[in-house]
Structures are given as structure tokens and as C-alpha cells.
Design a protein that fits this description.
Elements: E1 5-10, E2 15-20, E3 26-31, E4 37-43, E5 48-53, E6 58-63, E7 68-74, E8 79-84, E9 90-95, E10 100-105, E11 110-116, E12 121-127, E13 132-137, E14 142-147, E15 153-158, E16 184-189, E17 195-200, E18 205-210, E19 216-221
């Protein structure tokens, strides 16, 4: 993929799209033929994309040069969150309905390890330079921290807030299925900042965690149901 291209999942079409951000044109569409192709991570080194398919409990591997599907890897029910290790040797996938995290070996395209992470693991993010992996658990309302080398959970960080009761649960995408949990979902580890940001969807806030002390140092007010998070080096004035 070139610098001006991005990979976009299309759930309804069961496909991965390659889009030119300058023109807005879809350059190619590669079928996953899987249900609810929701999230994607790209391996520039291997010229591949890995797509997490919630409905099929799988990860689809796509050749970005040949624009074709290579494989479907079964990981577990509700495969959703996905990230690739800094060295691009592993892809970690959260299987939310199975309370499991699958670690895919990139060279062999097989599941090398399966880890437990309760309850309802929904996102996963590597912390570059720290050899740690963060997993947000929507139902239990916390973030699990794993050692990337040993694959062991080393700590839990409760979000320490409850769902926002000011708005009706019926009007929220997750409804009341998680009770009073703030429903931590999206995770962002901004380079060089030393903090992780966690979107608490049902609490309408973003939690800021210090990656050295593992303490919550701030809570940022967001709009209704924050989820995806991104980082830009550009400042807004």
C-alpha cells in the first residue's frame, strides 16, 4: 500500500476496501466472504492485511499486492479487536463472546496461543517500546495488561466509573447488557506520550492511564458513546 492509501472494512459487502485518501476513490475491493468484517490491521513488512470478522469468529488474511484472500483463521466467537506487534511477528485478536485472546503467528498464519481475558474483551493494543499489550474488557469494566513475551496477564486496571445514567440505556448501542459497567472499548497508545487513552462508551468519557504508574491520571469528557480513538501529530488551534 502507498502512503495515500488506507484499508477500510465494509461489513455489509463482506470486503476489505483499499481507498485513495486524496481522491476518495475505492481502488480495489477484496472479498472476505466472512460475516461482520469489522476491524483491520496492516502489516507493511509482509504486505498483508488482517481482518477481524465478528460474525464468523475468524481473521481473514489478505495479500495487498495480489489483492486476494490468502486464508481464514478461526480464532473464536466474536473476533473483533485486532493489533499487530511492533516487529510484525504476531497478530493479537480479542474474541469477545469467548472471553479469549488469540495470538496468531504471522509467518505460519496459525493460532500459536490462546489467552483468557474476562469479561467481554473487545479491543487490544500494543504499547510500543514497553513489550506490553492492553486489552479492554467491556463487561467487567477494566483493562487487562499482558506481558507480550510471556503471554501472562500482569495487572488489571478498573475504570472506576459507572455508566452514565443521564441518558436511557435503550438509546445506546450496547443498551443495558453490561449493567453499570462504563464499557471500555477503544484504546489508543500515542507515541512518545507515555499514556494510554481508553474510550468508556457507556460513561461518555475517555480515561487517561499513566503507563509507568498504571494510575488513572485524568478523565476527558467526550460526546455520547466514544469508541474509536486516533492520534495526530498536528495541533489544532
Amino acid at each position: 500500500m502507498r502512503d495515500r492509501e488506507v484499508a477500510v472494512t465494509a461489513e455489509g459487502s463482506k470486503a476489505l476496501l483499499i481507498v485513495d485518501v486524496n481522491t476518495g476513490k475505492v481502488l480495489s475491493a477484496v472479498p472476505t466472504d466472512q460475516n461482520v468484517s469489522h476491524m483491520v490491521v496492516v502489516s507493511p513488512k509482509h504486505h498483508r492485511a488482517f481482518v477481524a470478522n465478528i460474525g464468523s469468529g475468524s481473521v481473514t488474511v489478505i495479500d495487498l499486492i495480489g489483492k486476494k484472500k490468502i486464508a481464514d483463521i478461526q480464532t473464536g466467537a466474536g473476533a473483533e479487536g485486532i493489533d499487530i506487534s511492533p516487529g510484525e511477528k504476531e497478530v493479537w485478536v480479542t474474541n469477545r463472546s469467548a472471553n479469549r485472546v488469540s495470538v496468531i503467528d504471522v509467518p505460519s498464519l496459525t493460532v500459536a496461543t490462546t489467552l483468557e481475558s474476562k469479561d467481554f474483551p473487545i479491543r487490544v493494543k500494543f504499547a510500543p517500546g514497553r513489550k506490553l499489550v492492553l486489552v479492554s474488557n467491556a463487561r467487567s469494566g477494566d483493562v487487562a495488561v499482558f506481558d507480550a513475551a510471556t503471554k501472562k496477564e500482569i495487572r488489571r486496571i478498573p475504570m472506576q466509573v459507572k455508566a452514565n445514567e443521564a441518558s436511557s440505556a435503550a438509546s445506546r448501542i450496547f443498551g443495558s447488557q453490561f449493567g453499570q459497567s462504563p464499557v471500555p472499548v477503544g484504546i489508543l497508545v500515542a507515541p512518545g506520550v507515555g499514556h494510554a487513552f481508553v474510550a468508556n462508551t457507556n460513561a461518555d468519557i475517555v480515561t487517561m492511564i499513566d503507563l509507568k504508574t498504571w494510575q488513572i491520571v485524568d478523565r476527558l469528557t467526550a460526546g455520547k458513546e466514544p469508541d474509536g480513538l486516533g492520534y495526530s501529530r498536528l495541533s489544532i488551534k
